[in-house]
């Protein structure tokens, strides 16, 4: 179970919210049963349930637990907003493949329109999907879902990363493989993927001027939701051999 870091101290974990019902009614755990809790920041512990109350479960920590399942680099996927449930596919599968965080952005060819209310609901839903996918993959980190960025905000974010990469199907010389081969463990890598209609040439020039490096994801044109999964698979291949 994932908890906020503030719910886990040296000796105890306090589980609140929907997970209480899951523990008591779905899993039918009882006092004395052992469970694993993660604080979402890389700390996994095995603990024994001491008390199940209607609104909280108290767990005494027995020991630190688990292999590290995180990629040795932090990959942020910036995905041009895509239609329907494609964004959910990117977040679910991208979480399984080890992404550190996700942000959607709008650009010239974005078709999807989100008002403030819709955006808030989508962000909540995406965060829930990331949490569930992280649990299913036994990850100790739940990917962060950032707010939807404007094109300008996306361009300004390049400086926060060691590598700011811009997936562009017309790039002929620089491949993602080549860049990853040079990246050191611990690097923060941003990979920008376009929406269904891709990028306008003006946007490509703006991205390069903002410090992004155009990279190819191979010779075939991938669908907008396939491209980030390919990129994350390349990262796993490079760093987990
Ligand atoms: N029209 C299809 C769709 O509806 O999904 C293809 C869209 S493709 C243009 C969307 C984005 O995927 C591009 O903007 C680019 O970021 C990325 N992409 C796809 N294939 C790529 C490749 N071979 N190399 C680099 N980037 C690629």
Automatic annotation (TrEMBL):
- Read off the InterPro entries from this record: Alpha/beta_knot_MTases, PUA-like_sf, RsmE, RsmE_MTase_dom, RsmE_PUA-like, tRNA_m1G_MTases_N
Q: Where in the cell is it found?
A: Cytoplasm
List each copy of the Ribosomal RNA small subunit methyltransferase E methyltransferase domain by range.
Answer: 70-235
The protein's Enzyme Commission number: 2.1.1.193
Q: A Gene Ontology MF term for this entry? A: rRNA (uridine-N3-)-methyltransferase activity
One Pfam family here: Methyltrans_RNA
User: Could you tell me which CDD domains the record lists for this protein?
Assistant: RsmE-like
Q: What cellular-component terms does GO give this entry?
A: cytoplasm
What's the top EC group for this one? transferase
GO biological process assignments: rRNA base methylation
This protein's UniProt keywords: Cytoplasm, Methyltransferase, rRNA processing, S-adenosyl-L-methionine, Transferase
Keyword rRNA processing (UniProt): yes
Please name the SUPFAM superfamilies in this protein's record. Answer: alpha/beta knot, PUA domain-like
Q: Using the record's annotation, list all stretches that form the Ribosomal RNA small subunit methyltransferase E PUA-like domain.
A: 17-62
Function (record text): Specifically methylates the N3 position of the uracil ring of uridine 1498 (m3U1498) in 16S rRNA. Acts on the fully assembled 30S ribosomal subunit.
Q: Which family does it belong to?
A: Belongs to the RNA methyltransferase RsmE family.
Its name, as the record gives it, is Ribosomal RNA small subunit methyltransferase E
**Source organism of the structure:** Aneurinibacillus thermoaerophilus
